[in-house]
Amino acid sequence: MEPKHIDPKQIVADGYDRIAEQYGAWASQVRQEERAKYTSVLLEKLPAGAAVLELGCGAGLPTTRQLAQRFAVTGVDISARQVALARHNVPTATFLHADMTQLDFAFMSFDGVVAFYSFLHVPYYEQPGLLRNIAAWLRPGGVLVATLWPQATEATFADDWLGAPMYWSGLDKATSTRLIAAAGLHLLRAEEETVEEFGELITLFWVIAAKPV
Fold it and tell me: Would you say 86 and 93 are in contact if contact means Cβ atoms under 8 Å apart?
């Protein structure tokens, strides 16, 4: 299925509105070691009270809640239902219902930016601009931790993913790493992580980058 007449980001927003609770239950069972590993990067690298932006916060569990125990967190999600759940689950954080590619934060607003699994839903042609924005939002020494696709996928649609249509897109590893550098960020670490999902091995590309001091 490739419904080109439908905005792919609307598919993502509507999809997560519909499956918010199902997704939360599923996500609590998969890739937990991976989430903990990359959450710890922020906990180790940033000082208490640091300003952290989470792009694609979902319902706020478990990542947002853990980050909010140490940092001043602003969570953003394209799904209104997910944002409503996040506000309930993590009342100490600030949440915005918005398209992450359309955000307008002040220059050097954040010490850290987290994007766990959310870049995977951003159209590949919007990812270079988003990386440039992230670099602008980060303060010197600030850190980006993000999940990307290891291989290019211009547009992948599913009729039924956890109970709703869904869309994914992304760039290949070489292009993503080049764009991270072009945005003005220094790549600290890049690793592939492979985990079984629905009986299939799914490999994701994790990057950790910093804004030079």
Answer: yes
Q: What is the pLDDT of residues 25-48, one digit of tens each?
A: 999 999 999 999 999 999 999 999
Q: How far is CA 29 from the centre of its chain?
A: 18
Instruction: Parse the chain into domains and list their residue ranges.
Output: 8-210
Per-residue pLDDT tens digits for 6-19: 799 999 999 999 99
Amino acid at 186: H
pLDDT for residue 2: 46
Cα distances from 92 to residues 28, 38, 60, 116, 133, in angstroms, run 21, 21, 11, 20, 25
Contact (Cβ atoms closer than 8 angstroms) between residue 121 and residue 167: yes
- Other CB atoms within 10 A of residue 197 CB: 13
What does the pLDDT read at residue 1? 43
Beta pairing partners, 197: 200
CATH class of 8-210: alpha beta
CA-based nearest residue to 166, from 174, 158, 176: 158
User: Where would I find the beta strands (DSSP E) of 56-199?
Assistant: 72-77, 94-97, 110-115, 138-148, 153-161, 164-170, 186-197
Tell me the mean pLDDT in the region 194-205.
95
Place of tokens 């109970």: 163
Question: Distance from CA of residue 181 to its chain's centroid?
Answer: 19
Residue 55 in contact with residue 116, Cβ under 8 Å? Answer: no
pLDDT digits (tens, 9 = 90+) for 48-86: 999 999 999 999 999 999 999 999 999 999 999 999 999
